[in-house]
Structures
1.
Amino acid sequence: MKTLNIQNIIVPIDFSKMSMQAIQIAKQLARRFDGSIHLAHVRHLNYATDFVAPAPPIVPFSPMNYEQNAEQTALKELKRMATECGVSSANCDVLGGAPPFDEICRLAQTIQADLVVMPTHGRTGLKHVFLGSTAERIVQHSSCPVLVTRGNVFQANNSSRFRIKTILVPVDFSNCSREGLLYAIRFAHEFSAKIILLHATYLGYIYSSEDTALYDIPGLKKAARKKAERRMRELVRSVNFAGVKFETVFTEGSPVFDICAYAKDHDVDLIITSTHGLTGFTHVLIGSIAEHVVRHAPCSVLVVPSHLHIRAANLVKSGATKAGTLVRWPQSLGTPRGNPLTRKDRKLAVHTFPERRKTNKFRESHSSR
């Protein structure tokens, strides 16, 4: 089994209290894996408020100097926070010019980050519809795993060991969920944790039909459960758990609700799930289970991205990021031979980040203004 290797950790900083907690969690992970921490702050330029009062006629005003001073101030504050938290101030970056999620994801590609550690502000209702969540967008677009922190699960005790005893891994028997399970096994092996495989046999199409009486609902549930148990046995036999203890759980409700409810009722310490990379109108209609779990889970969530090779190959092909920095092929993907993309992959690789939603452009373009 391939061991878990986390060398470069990115912590997005907005100078909030939750950001400080994320730094402490990243420090513990970096200490365990002998890795380094990169602090990143994305500046917002609100021209409507910053320039509402004109400068006195005697004093010349330059927007360029204003931005440079603001960047220097933010960098100074970021380094001060790094020093207070015991993190090297040499790995501090102040980014700008694009929405925060875009800048963070590009930085992760540039430095070949292994993990992004960040909190979520948990916006709800109409505010969430218009502003969204930076954590959710990074989950959508990141080319490396993202740990969205909640609670004090990762706080070290007197013996400086993480208190991770139970890891919940939702599976739907797809290749994406299989990759998430393999990552979870490596993570559980490192922390001597137990894995719970959860599959929700949700028959939502039945309850959305007007002719519900035509269906033998108990019979369909029984058949779905039997099929799920068979596929779960096949999955378990095909995966090397390397001595990690595990158990399987089956539910019949909505996947997001059952995942979050089970995590709350059984004191789960961490949820490790994968993204499926839904694109276009499909993503708009049903969204992503990973995004919903990040929003509603009672514990920390670690999201393993899908289509990593598509994103990496697309950046390698372009040869540079937005800032013109050369991006190398990640070592974890091995040496590329010939054309690493299939026809389906090339269709998905329209953007640097294939899960980018076209209908989300308005929200993304206005989030930094």
2.
Amino acid sequence: MPFITEDFLLHNPAAKRLYRTFAEGEPILDYHCHLSPASIAQNRQFQNLFEIWLEGDHYKWRAMRANGVDERYCTGDASPFEKFLAWAGAVPHTLRNPLYHWTHLELQRYFGIDELLDEHSAKRIWERANALLATDELRAHGILKRFRVAALCTTDDPADDLSCHQAIRASGCAARVFPAFRPDKALNVHLPDAFNTWVDRLAAASSVDIGSLQDFTDALRQRHDAFHAMGARLSDHGLNHCYADFCSAGTAAVIFDRARQAQPASAEDHKRFASYMMLFFGHLDAEKGWTKQLHLGAYRNANTRRLQQIGPDCGFDSIGDWPQANALGAYLDRLEMENALPKMILYNVNPVDNYTLATMIGNFQDGKIAGKIQFGSGWWYLDQQEGMEWQINALSNTGLLSRFVGMLTDSRSFMSYPRHEYFRRVLCNLIGRDIEDGLIPDSDTLVGPMIRNICYRNAQQYLGLDIQAGLGASQ
């Protein structure tokens, strides 16, 4: 019997019925991912299993390092097959890590491979997968069509000229692909060298000569407008915590001018400037009806030596333990007082903060937009069965699960679309267990629409993206 069966993660009759009737057939709206727009525009053909599966995957690198695999086989100069073989040898040691589930679910869904991956099966799996990767069905566009991706949002810097998104529109891709506005580098006045290099890129992209804070915000507004014209309706910020050390425009201008003169901002001035800019970004999103995403709590680049050797986003980040409630509440409250609180999705990586965020959203619902402020899906280290259940339970116990906008991949890999299936199975199993335990009614007319809405329709209605109808969504 294969490891991934039809009833994988579905442990009771109600769960199986809910999944097959209401979840399995829904399209995917992947509203936050890190796929390369260039790869989509080019309809990339992946040359081998390494390119589509291991290239840039810091989850796998962390597991390989923990298994004693040399860095040469993670981010180094080993050949693609050598790196794949090193990963295959590590897979049996990932039992009870979600990587074991994801690995075999992805092999089955993309290539029809039910064999368990290890160093003995690696060559057979490599050859079989590579043969299938040579077909059009597993090019970038084919993958999006196969997994019925109605739309996806990439993560894009304001200084990006969006030429790849323009190319996607002309590429024949059936899925709608939108940019999302990620202006994290706009806060980095404490790192003036990198900040000024980026400001110069922003100036070029916006055709605004940036000599003052007003010029800076004008340039960002111009890029926000350009993103909107390209269909963008979401922004995103990766923050340790919110900023709530609010200052005047005059104070922010002084801090900006010093950074432009290569003077690094102090910790206190950095917080003031970041607070000023985050209010500005809130106003931009609210004016256009966008959804703002806040990813909170990651402890990044913990290993200085590895950061210097390899760079960021290579698997040396973990969960942070910053206090979240006071600054988050103050930020949301300030936007609310200024009549500039946009729709917002809050994600946290520290499970200690689940109930903090799940209750915080209730403070700022406006009685006009259902689920205006969202507690987002389990993120990063919580993007697994237990973490998903924790997030669902916290939201259910303090708010309205029925209004939840559901799952996203948050991935750089075209191999990650089964994560939506994984989430849907976890959701249906959890609700099915409640039905079996008599905690909620055994009524498909009551429960079924909630499942269907969480899987796709809530996000479709909430985000306001221009998604073409069709793609097999059930009625």
